């Protein structure tokens, strides 16, 4: 466990909370490191805590009775991972797993629940986060049903770039297969096609985005829809500052 030592502005949800209200949460916030692929919660379980991503993102994946998975959204530094945003019933409807190595703020769920009940601002911010989540869920679900895999891969790569502003994405073919709901071999074939076009370079546990413009042209367009809708929601709401880099 690492003691909190830097600005809360790294997470937009915390940055938007009134300083006096934030002061009541500070003693309970911890900065913790998550490893890529680390599972925070399985479907039907209760989240052990509330998570506010800083330098990682949390993948929300629906899991079928046969064990097939499909990512329907990612929650990054613009939002919060909590029951009120994702489930609302106390138990998670999906798996929550870290997309890449990085840090999150961890907050006791009871402390967050008390703050939610007491603060109209926090309740409003949670509502904004629900809208951000739904903007992803609707478009990504459509994308997974109607677009070919290599276009979905380009969409995933570009959305990862939007979050990290890094052309090196920490991800394996197995993780991509889990998130896109296909076999690993299918991902390997599709990624190989994209690499042959010079758009990416593949390494053992990461993928370098070699041609962002080329990836944008090959993408199905869902990336732009998700990105622009999330920017619109953030910009329209004075309570959650839109990131200048998004």
Automatic annotation (TrEMBL):
Keywords: DNA-binding, Transcription, Transcription regulation. Pfam families: HTH_Crp_2 (PF13545). Residues 163-211 form the HTH crp-type domain. GO terms for molecular function: DNA binding. Residues 13-131 form the Cyclic nucleotide-binding domain. The keyword Phosphoprotein does not apply. The keyword Zinc-finger does not apply. It comes from the Bacteria. One of its GO terms (biological process) is regulation of DNA-templated transcription. SMART domains: cNMP, HTH_CRP. This is Crp/Fnr family transcriptional regulator.
């Amino acid at each position: 466990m690492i003691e909190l030592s830097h600005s809360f502005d790294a997470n937009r949800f915390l940055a938007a909370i009134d300083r006096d209200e934030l002061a009541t949460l500070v003693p309970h916030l911890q900065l913790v490191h998550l490893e890529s692929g680390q599972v925070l919660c399985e479907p039907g379980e209760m989240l052990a805590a509330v998570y506010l991503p800083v330098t990682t993102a949390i993948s929300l994946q629906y899991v079928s009775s046969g064990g097939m998975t499909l990512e329907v959204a990612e929650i990054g530094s613009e939002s919060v991972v909590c029951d009120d945003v994702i489930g609302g019933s106390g138990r998670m409807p999906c798996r929550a797993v870290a997309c890449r190595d990085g840090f999150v703020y961890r907050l006791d769920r009871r402390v967050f629940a008390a703050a939610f009940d007491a603060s109209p601002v926090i309740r409003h911010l949670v509502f904004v986060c629900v809208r951000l989540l739904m903007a992803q869920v609707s478009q990504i679900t459509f994308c997974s049903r109607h677009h070919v895999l290599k276009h979905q891969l380009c969409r995933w790569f570009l959305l990862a770039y939007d979050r990290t502003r890094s052309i090196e994405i920490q991800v394996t073919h197995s993780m991509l297969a889990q998130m896109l709901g296909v076999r690993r071999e299918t991902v390997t074939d599709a990624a190989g096609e994209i690499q042959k076009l010079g758009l990416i370079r593949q390494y053992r546990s990461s993928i370098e985005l070699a041609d962002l413009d080329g990836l944008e042209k090959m993408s199905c367009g869902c990336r732009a829809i998700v990105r622009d809708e999330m920017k619109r929601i953030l910009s329209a709401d004075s309570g959650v500052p839109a990131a200048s880099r998004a």
